């Protein structure tokens, strides 16, 4: 008789790489242990510290296990039926008193496809509100907007990550995967082992930049000028692919003219990147037999993020590095389901399958699947920050699930006050986050190892997270919560609690859309280690590589988009002379709501800090470890100084995983990109002040 312990194959609960892992029962307070899963092709068993320690959040002391209702100013334990009755009554009463759009829904980029799909359906069918968006708006919305207008379709990577080592040159813009998704770094190392070159664009010399053949360190907020300057050099040196431009693109003449207005000496002055480095980057890119540009939050989280990404896409198109094997533009998605989370309906302007909410045909298709009148569906609503900014005014009650905007939103102090001003706030989460602490009702929900559901990773590969252990007594799944609330609001049908049934409905709703999942099933995902969308039928093989024959616009051609550099929304001045940029560190994830509850991760990254160059520190009279006040137009925080020569002297860096005194997002600027509605997280003006020791 075998004594072998069954291992459940599943995926990491954190970033968009969605690394494969195994979960093995322990019988202890932490009910499973994480083991390697070498067979999954993306990470081949490798895990970062966050993934290796993911099971710690399953421990009873780390998470919520009973509903909480605010009584006499404090959150107190309550029965599920009492909590659900209260939520349904208050949401219905708010809609009756102020109109349906006075009830808002705010989702998350870490929700499974099934949850994101039913959350969008709940908003539009059970609540009939347009006031829904999600925190994925803060992730890759600029890249999505730029990709859609260039290629006619947005998928983070239009090729598998395994193609990256096979290209000749990668320009990695505003990404630090050595800390944000370490198992991805193997692909960059393999690229160089295969004779390819790596160019990293980042104002800091990060662990990733240390791997590069060439590191460009522009001032935060100047990535658009940098891309335009490289395209100028490509044109001036006669390195464009005229045959590709003629056969597979439109709009080149206007784009070429825009690039030629950004001559190299001007770009050097704007970005701070020396002209010889600009020339070397252009040469490496053009000399390669195939090249890629990969962007992340650095260029995207700007008030001109869409145009910035368009400029990098233009560089790919002008050199023929798109629509062919081992070349192209891609975005490194950040959140675990940042891709799938926006494809299926929790974004303010979208319906399942990446359909547009204002498209009559899209409304008719989805309404038929849902069994409702298309005219009953609300129109597009506000983007994420605009929705948060409207709280306490137009939006009086909010259902928030899987997000922690007190920490993660720009201008976080203002967003916190807006949350406090609500008539009613209900938060559905795994842990008592800083946002949940403000709620009137907190609903404890199951997490990744306690439920089954699909995710879509950064390659567009739909994968299956499998349930490995029962949730503690007193915890329900998000699908059960939505079902119970919908029933109380008069919609007892149409909100399944079985995730596979929810996915089968999602497949029907997405059929014929840009993100077509109709041919994907749980059985296929398990058999094939994931299926790449679009996959319109069970017989279709899936689409690992997009655009090889045609782009997704009706004429099959890619679109050049002419863009011009413009300054950041907030430039340094005499009062606030330093640029602040933000990002992540190796041992923490996003708002830290879960990782800050793991002892091993806190030991590696115990708290906030501000990183500054010794030259700046010397002018301020600051030593390493001193307390420093960071002051912006939006707030003041105090945090230890960390001195390093790996950052520009005119720039400081803060990680954004913490609330309170060390909150980076107290300072970040909510200025919005006019196309994507992405806030400008990556560039704002601050000053630093030494803090006297008492």
TrEMBL record:
**SMART domains in the cross-refs:** Molybdop_Fe4S4
Protein name listed in UniProt: Molybdopterin oxidoreductase family protein
Q: Which organism is it from?
A: Kitasatospora herbaricolor
Task: Report the residue ranges that make up the 4Fe-4S Mo/W bis-MGD-type domain in this protein.
Answer: 5-62
InterPro entries xrefs: Asp_de-COase-like_dom_sf (IPR009010), MoPterin_dinucl-bd_dom (IPR006657), Mopterin_OxRdtase (IPR006656), Mopterin_OxRdtase_4Fe-4S_dom (IPR006963), Prok_molybdopt-oxidoreductase (IPR050123)
Origin organism lineage: Bacteria, Bacillati, Actinomycetota, Actinomycetes, Kitasatosporales
Keywords of the record, alphabetical order, are: 4Fe-4S, Iron, Iron-sulfur, Metal-binding
**Pfam families tied to this protein:** Molybdop_Fe4S4, Molybdopterin, Molydop_binding
Keyword Ribonucleoprotein part of the UniProt annotation: no
Q: Which CDD domains match?
A: MopB_CT_Fdh-Nap-like (cd00508)
The answer on whether this UniProt entry bears the keyword Coiled coil reads no
